[in-house]
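Could you please review the protein record set out just below?
***
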Amino acid sequence: MEGFFSVFTIELFNSGIRLATPILLAALGGALCNKAGVLNLALESKMLLGAFLGIVAAYYLGNTYLGILVAVIAGGLLGWLFAFLYHRYQVDLVILSIALNLIILELTVYMMRVMFGQTGSWSDPSIVRVPDIHIPFIEDIPVLGGLLSGYNFIVYLSWAIALVLYVVLYHTKFGRHIRAVGENQEAAETVGINPRQIQTMALVLSGMLAALGGAFLSVGHLKLFTRNMSNGRGWTAIAAALFGLNHPIGTFFASLFFGFADAFSVRIQNVTDLPPNLVEILPNLATVLVLVLIALRETVTRSMARARTRAQIRATADEKPATT
């Protein structure tokens, strides 16, 4: 039992924050699309594309930051392609998402084999990982310093993006347009809002955020690329967005939950005798639990709405005789 509780250290939370970063970036993109009324299940492909192009561009350009920039641009272009196929040809969103996820998965493996002669993983000593930032004064504060200092700029940028997205969605005209399109496209059109344009912008920004999360995996955290490097994080991000009610702040904490679940599954292997295969499914169990809670929340919400409707009908019926 003492060994179990020894898992809960500053290092665990530090690792959880790092592991939550790619999930958070993709989840914020997913939440933005959900607010705009367009289902984006292709986060996995955009994250994987960002991971691959981020490290490849960093290798050929000799600059990690340029590699990240290339990954973000590519993610935005893939988001635009997604929007174009959806709006121009009315392709089913679920089918389109699954197709992109499968194509990018196999394409990255093929390109890795063609370009570097590798199929499982690839790295090069010349690639420089994004350095960590140690914040003066804060890093000297006990406990708090270990939690808030010592991450690379992508981690801090993800926090800032969550805050900026909150301000944009709830305190700007553009954010009101996004939410209006998501709530009722026809009503939004009547007041001069272009739903197609809004959804396209949401998908492009979502692709850029997911690709940034993928680049974090390859050059911001591990300095290598492996087959299927996203490893389901795009799907986890979708769950995080739903669990966070598509609210940037709620999505932030939901992503932290999944990041800590990943970190916990890694750390617990070092202090317990649990079978590794059992420990590795803990993050997946956490995802399933969250999805169950989401379903229960939706059921309760619908039940309460029906109860309110019945109460209003009864109140109206009771008022009619009195009026007569």
Summary: The mean pLDDT is 88.
